[in-house]
Structure formats: C-alpha cells, structure tokens
Specification:
The complex is a heterodimer of chains A (about 400) and B (about 150).
Chain A: E1 8-15, H1 26-41, E2 50-54, H2 65-73, E3 80-83, H3 89-102, E4 108-116, H4 123-127, H5 143-158, H6 162-176, H7 192-195, H8 200-205, E5 213-222, E6 234-242, H9 267-280, E7 289-292, H10 297-306, H11 315-320, H12 337-341, H13 351-361, E8 376-383, E9 388-396
Parallel strand pairs in A: 2-3, 2-4, 7-8
Antiparallel strand pairs in A: 1-5, 1-6, 4-5, 6-9, 8-9
Helix pairs in contact in A: 1-2, 6-10
Chain B: H1 17-22, H2 24-29, E1 31-35, E2 41-42, E3 59-63, E4 67-76, E5 90-97, E6 102-107, E7 121-131, E8 137-145
Antiparallel strand pairs in B: 1-2, 1-3, 4-5, 4-7, 5-6, 7-8
Classes of the chains: A alpha/beta (about 400), B mainly beta (about 150).
Chain lengths: ~400, ~150
C-alpha cells in the first residue's frame, strides 16, 4: 500500500428508476444519472476533474468508449477512465476514483456505470461473461450453470435449505415494497409458502430480477473539498480482490487467503473486505447496515459470511433469527437486493448498495430506514462468477 | 441439437478454429500443466504462464487423471435454444479428479438424472460438441458414470 494523502468523501449520487424508456440509448442513460446527481449535489460540470466509468464490453460494442462518454456528459476535453470488469465494474471504477482523489491528483470525481442489457443480441452472449471461455463457455458450460452448482455445493456443505433461501428473498421483497427505486416496488408481495416450494417456478422466483437498462453514479471529493458542497459528507473506502477465473480452481487455490476455502466460501470477498475494513479502521461488529449483490439467496448467505456479519456457514441462521430485518443489530439488503431491487450489471450492482447506504446514513430511507442513526454501512458486489469482488465502506463524517 | 433447433442459431463469442486448435490437448485428454519448480498442478493449462504458488515460470504438460468423483451437481433445464434440446435436462457437475484437480463438466448417457448423485464415480469421455467456423465438428470432454 502506498501513501494516502487524504480521505475520500461521497457527497451524492443518483440511479435510474426501473423501466426506463426503451428509446433511451446508453448515452442517455449515462447522462441522466450524471445530470441528476450533479444537480442535486450542487456540483458544476466544470468542477468535475475525472469520470470513472464501468461498462459492459459485450453489450456496448462501441470501441474507444471514453471519448463518447465524455462527449455525452459535456466534459470534453477532461478524461473518462473506462473499466470493463463485469457486474462489479463500478466497484472498480470507484476504486479508480478513490485513488485519483486520495492521491491528491483530482478533487471531484464522478464514478459512473451503465448497462443496456437489451443490447445483447443473444442470451448466449450474455452467458459467456465471466467464464474461462476456452474451457467452459465454448464447451457449453455457462456461469448460470456455475450458480446452480455452487448453490448445490453450499447447501450440502452447510445444511442450508430452500426454505432458508425463501426467507432471504421474502425479506428482500419486504424492503423493495418500501423502496420506489426497486423493480418490485408497487407489486404484490409474494406468498412465502410459494417462494419456498420445490418447483422450477419457485426456483426462478428466488433468483434475481433483471432491471434491463439502468445507470447510476456517485460523486466523490477530497475531504478538504467536501464542505463546498455539503455539511453531511460520508467517508468512502473501497477495495477489491480476485479469485482465479476457472470455477474448478475455486477449490483450494494455492495462494494465501484462498487455499483454505472452496466453492462454498467467497474467499475473494473476504480478502477485499479485510483491506476495505483496514482502510476504514473498522471491524465487522461496528457495521450498522449491509447491502450485498445477490443473484441467489445462497450467494447472499455467502456474502454476509465473507463480510464478517456472521460466521462462515451460518448465513442462514443469521437470517432465520431475523438478522436481515430492521430490528436486527445489522439489517441486510434494505435496498431490496437482487431478487427485488433487481440485477443491473455495471449499471447498479455495486452502486445500488453504496447509494442505499449513503441514504441510510443520511436518514432518507423512509419506511425502510434503519433505526438508531446508522453511522457505518458496507456494501459488496461481484463480477463474473465471484472471480472478482468489491467492497465499499461508508462512514458518517458529521 | 433438437428437431426444433437443429443447429445453434445464437451468436457465440470467440468461436474460431484457432481457439479450438490451441486448446485441443486439454479438450482431448484433460491436459493441464505442472510447475516444475514447486510441483503444483493446474487445469486449465497454464502453458507459458506464471505459477501463482511459487511465482516460477516453468510449466510443463501434465495429464490429469480421467476418473474422479462428483462433488456438486445441478440440472440445467433452461436453454433448449442453445442447441441442447435433445439432452435436457443437462446434468452439470463439478468433478474432483483422482489427483485432486476440480473440473466443471456435464454427465452424459444417463436415462434418469436421479442416477447421478454427489459421490458417484465418473470417467471422462469425448463427445461431439458443436461445429467450429469451418464447419468441422468439435469434440469436448464430458463424463459418464463408471460401471
């Protein structure tokens, strides 16, 4: 770790609502959130030093995308740093933003991500993302297959059940009915017994909802700059880590931090969390609220375990004891999670959790607001099949 | 393939003869690599790459054993359009080979998916998989239950 010259503060952000117009191009998606976030935070476009941008290089086939983003946002000739790191891409874009500010090179950086998943010309093209293409995808083995196998393995190793999964998903839906930005907002609550059924339909209902076109962004500034814009900034820290890209190598990969684990633990997320917590100077016991990126409930259990909210293998017990709810010492997925807020790849999978924590710290979450004036929120996101994991830590600075 | 979908009609990434040529040893006989400095073995092969364990750059071909045990399984019933219409549900597995290497694959030649359970012994076979861009058939590794 090099020398960090100053803290990084988050002062605002924005996300598109579900069901954005079909007519919108990815440029409009990106511009919508950039404009809204800057307007709300009172930041002039001329003050933005850098935009870091995550995009999906299979859905946005335009090459050399940086100048196009800069042009759309009206910041030319200032630079856009582009990253393509699957669904957690904005975690990496925010990592780049953090570095630019912590080093002192930039004062104001906007971290942006967008996805226009209906740009895919085939379901199969989407399924290739994150695979070790030569040895799984081209042989007909997708990362969706990985998800099913991983859940099976986790269930066997730690004794988790479909009913445990239904409990996670149900609570996500409960929060989503209280979050106007969630894909499931305004829809009838699912019936728990139907969610817990052992049928293909119920299995589908326990997985993530696709948001389609989505974009979101955050505004980060140096600690000495924040007071120009707000008296309620939040200290932001972020880290990310990798596991090997081939699924078979999740089993006891021979490097420190990974060798003791297999497919049932998110060892990369553990590594990232340790670094992020170290930067923030916190321990898991201090965390007031957690948001995770979960395409299945079992993945959610694995994430809260890796983040240290509960011991490894006991995610289901934490949830069964009411750990996700507002009455818990550390509520989970108040934004609605993958099953009910919706999955949006680089458009929201990291940002939705970070923005939710920002609004939670500010007390702006209405009926889903965590009590006791939360001071510390953590969010996680992953890309590919958990080959890369990102962790964000947000702390009140007021 | 199936009567409904006799050939793939979806676009595939990196679908060239060159890719298939480069990975043929691994596809035909599960050839991975072994680090000559520390002895760590890997699949897929790390030919020309750095060992993550000892950081040497000294890989040699290493043939993984063709037999092992299923450690995880799931059924894929979702994608007839991908060209597997005659094989649904597909039985997707993680196999721990007899040397401890883990591979992701599919179990074939089973009348009832219930026959394939965690703990079952399996053996690698080659199966016709899909066409490369020249029209030639590509073969890939799959597994069958050991008798």
């Amino acid at each position: 770790m090099g020398k960090i010259t100053r803290k990084v503060m988050m002062i605002g952000g924005a996300i598109t609502p579900p069901n954005v117009p079909m007519e919108w191009t990815w440029r409009q998606l990106a511009t919508e959130v950039f404009w809204n976030a800057l307007q709300e935070a009172g930041v002039a476009i001329k003050d933005v030093d850098l935009v870091t941008c995550a995009y999906n290089d299979r859905t946005i086939v335009d090459s050399s995308i940086g100048p196009q983003v800069a042009d759309a946002l009206g910041i030319v000739p200032k630079p856009v740093m582009v990253t393509a790191s699957a669904c957690a891409g904005n975690g990496i874009a925010s990592y780049v933003a953090w570095n630019a500010i912590a080093s002192g090179r930039c004062d104001v950086v906007v971290s942006l991500g967008f996805a226009r998943s209906d740009n895919y010309d085939a379901m199969e093209a989407m399924n290739s993302q994150g695979n070790y293409v030569d040895f799984d995808y081209l042989l007909g083995l997708t990362h969706i297959n990985y998800g099913g196998i991983r859940d099976d393995y986790y269930k066997r190793k730690y004794g988790a059940t479909i009913e445990d999964a239904a409990r996670w998903v149900y609570q996500c839906h409960w929060y989503a009915r209280r979050n106007p930005l969630a894909a499931a907002y305004g829809k009838p609550m699912p019936v728990f017994e139907e969610l817990a059924a052992d049928t293909p339909e119920a299995d589908r209902d326990r997985q993530a909802t696709n948001r389609g076109g989505v974009a979101s962004c955050m505004i980060f500034v140096g600690e000495d700059v924040a007071a120009r814009y707000t008296d309620r900034p939040a200290v932001f820290n972020v880290a990310y880590a990798y596991r090997p890209p081939y699924v078979g190598n999740f089993f006891h990969y021979p490097v420190p931090g990974l060798a003791d684990y297999d497919m049932a633990e998110l060892s990369g997320l553990m590594v990232a969390a340790r670094e992020a917590y170290g930067l923030a100077g916190i321990t898991p016991e201090q965390i007031d609220v957690v948001q995770v990126h979960d395409l299945t409930a079992f993945e959610g259990f694995m994430a809260i375990e890796a983040l240290g909210i509960c011991p490894v293998g006991q995610g289901k017990d934490y949830v069964a004891a009411g750990g996700m709810t507002l009455e818990s010492r550390c509520p989970v997925n108040t934004y609605g999670g993958g099953p009910a807020f919706g999955h949006g790849s680089v458009g929201c999978d990291f940002q939705a959790g970070l923005l939710e924590n920002f609004w939670q710290l500010r007390g702006q979450c209405g009926e889903r607001q965590v009590g006791g004036e939360p001071r510390l929120g953590v969010n996680s996101s992953y890309g590919t099949h958990h080959s890369l994991d990102a962790v964000g830590v947000l702390q009140r600075a007021w | 393939m199936s009567e409904q979908f006799p050939e793939f009609f979806v676009r595939l990434d990196t679908f060239s003869s060159a890719v298939w040529y480069r990975n043929k040893a691994a596809r035909y006989r599960l050839e991975g690599t072994r680090c000559t400095a520390c002895g760590a073995t890997f699949f897929p092969p790390r030919t020309g790459l750095i060992c993550p364990h000892c950081h040497a750059r000294a890989m040699e071909p290493y043939e993984c054993p063709p037999t092992g045990e299923i450690v995880a399984r799931t059924l894929d019933e979702m994608f007839p359009a991908h060209g597997y219409g005659d094989y649904l549900p597909r039985i997707m597995v993680i196999v721990r080979l007899d040397d401890g290497t883990h591979v992701m694959s599919e179990v074939m030649d089973v009348a009832d998916p219930a026959e394939v359970q965690v703990g079952a012994r399996v053996r690698m076979v080659l199966r016709k998989h899909r066409r490369e861009d020249t029209g030639a058939w590509v073969y890939g590794p799959r597994f069958v239950l050991e008798a």
